[in-house]
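Internal tracking record. Fields below are filled automatically when a chain is submitted to the structure queue. Please do not edit lines marked as system-generated. If the sequence contains nonstandard residues, flag them in the REMARKS field before resubmitting.
Queue: standard
Priority: normal
Entity type: single polypeptide chain
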Amino acid sequence: MSAKILVVDDEKSFCELYTYTLEQAKFQVETAYSAEEALQKMQKTAPSLVLSDVRLPGINGLEFLQQARLQYPETPFLLVTAYADVRDAVNALKIGAVDYLEKPVDLDELVSAVQDVLGMKNHSYHPEIPDSAREGIVAQSPAMFTILRDAYRIASSDANLLITGESGTGKEVIAKFIHEQSTRRNKPLVAINCSAIPATLLSSELFGHEKGAFTGAVTSRPGRFREADGGTLFLDEIGDMPLELQPALLRALETRCVTPVGASREIKLDFRLIAATNRNIWEDVQQGRFREDLYYRLNVILFELPPLRERLEDILPLARNLLSQEGAAHKKLSRAAAKLLSLYPWPGNVRELSNAIEHACLLSQTSIILPEHFPLTIRNYAFPSRLSSATTPPNERQTLREIEIEAIKKTLLQTEGNRTQAAQILGITRRGLLIKLKRYEIDL
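SYSTEM-GENERATED OUTPUT FOLLOWS
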């Protein structure tokens, strides 16, 4: 039996439109032209969901919702209003509505909203991966599901991996997933960011050192390779590794041995290496900034993570997952907030989305998150008419480079040139922002 929807609207044309649309989507539909009539029909047969207009004659939609909730607390309500009044929407959500739609209602959005509420959303991509393995991983988009499926398949091998993608796309998440699905899962996953450690210290950090090997080496240190013995070593931002250190890394990969700084003997190790970079590492090879033989040694298996703007199906599931991680699983994205997240191009990718969700959680004092709770940069992109005269609306034909430059400039204006704050809003590191400022020759 298909779900039964009770449509309540005093305008017959709307009732007919909603009925036709929902019946085409294989729902059973019953209509009522007032709240009083709807309550009578609910007494006879409780519907799976009520779709009600807010402005009704007699008992209005909010009063109808309150009365119905007393008798039918489990029946979900989806409200429709011709008035973009945030207060009415918030009040409706506070007293039990699951969401609201604004007239004129997009019919595809109507069906999607009903399916979402009833848990009937169809997904075309069913993973060949155990649910326990997918916990905390969002991969609704075809591209990300394919990557996750392939990562699961190769997890048990010891082949070196190279993961590429823009900053914030989740390279470390994939590395962790591979480690946890491998036979090395009970041994450590040791991560190091090659760009965060000065070149003079990176060799010691990776390979360890003997006591007295250099000034300040008052004790011996094992190094990250030895810490990862039996497990997995994750070298993030491998593209930033100094050229002079790359031969030592190449030898470690070829021989599975390391020589600590100041030592005279090699130490045999058992590790699996996963490297990641946001750079075009092949371009670095061609320009002599990265060794070609090391590139091929790392690139046994390559995963290229798509940016979030190319994984639209993942944005809302990621947002909901991030809400849960923030301890705010009880909070809900309003329909308008969800649309806002879907419109924004996310130059900072998942990291920027995470920052935006944290920002919204802090500003939202109720269980509902509205567009106004997100950072100004995101709101301004979706609602260009609200931009100040100091900025210009985004051009639909802008290149990705132009969009990124515009986002950086807007954020720097918003933070009055504070680069640390701007980097936090954009969801990237301060060093990453400085690199982009230099690359794009931005001087604010």
